[in-house]
Amino acid sequence: MGGSRVFRRFVCSRFGARFSEMMHILEAVAFLPIEPRLAQCLLANLQDGAVAMTHQQLAEEINSAREVVSRHLKQFAARGLIRLGRGRISIAAPAALEKIASST
Which of 6, 9, 62, 94 has the most crowded CB, counting CB atoms within 10 A? Predict the structure, then answer.
C-alpha cells in the first residue's frame, strides 16, 4: 500500500464504505425493533401487490433469524395486513404496513 497512492486511496475508501455499511446494520439490529424492519423490507420489495421472497431471504435482508421472521409474518397475516403463500407474500394493507414501518 505504501508503493501506490491510488491503490491506498482505493483500499481506504472501500474500507470506509464497508465500515459505514456495517455500522448502519448494527444500528438497525440493535435499536430498531423487528416489526418496523420487516415492514420496511416488505414495502421495499413490493412489486404488483406482492413480495416474491422466502422467509429465509427476508431474514437475511433484515439480519434476523428465519424463525423470527416467520413468527412476525404470521402475526401480520392474523392482523389482515398480508396473505402468506409459497415464496410469495401478498400485501393486503400497504397503508398499515407503512404506518408500522415508520414507527421507528
Answer: 62
